[in-house]
């Protein structure tokens, strides 16, 4: 759910333009990579959650213990990796938001703060998956 919120905040109001120009820019210090990173890990985390949810549903029907072991290790490894990537995303978005000038943000400040907040919450939700 947190990944979906981060993705939605950045897609919905993560890009803005100046009143004098139709050119869109990322509200995180005009750094397109910040928006792309948040959107990218949000989408991939959401898709991975769907995949691992489906694996959990069919897990009791998998009779091969080797396959079960690899699925559990894949879930554990992915959760650990995604914890790290969410931490990097939180630090990156926070840093870029700190350097953003107030005159550049007309709309979307609340969405930017929500993306930062829920990327922080995502760290703990992925840690809980890895433990």
Annotation, overall tally of beta strands: 2
Shape designation: elongated
Distance between the termini: 19 Å
Give the helices and strands as they follow along the chain.
Answer: HEEHHH
Into which percentage range does the β-strand content fall? under 5%
The major β-sheet equals:
2 strands, antiparallel
Number of helices: 4
- The strand line-up of the biggest sheet is 1-2
Mean residue pLDDT: 92
Verbal overview:
The structure is a single chain. By secondary structure, this protein is mainly α. The protein has one domain (1-130). The chain is built from four helices and two strands. It has a two-stranded antiparallel sheet with strand order 1-2. Helix 1 runs antiparallel to helix 2 (32-58), helix 1 (2-13) packs antiparallel against helix 4 (109-130) and helix 3 runs antiparallel to helix 4 (109-130). The chain starts with a helix and ends with a helix. The mean pLDDT is 92.
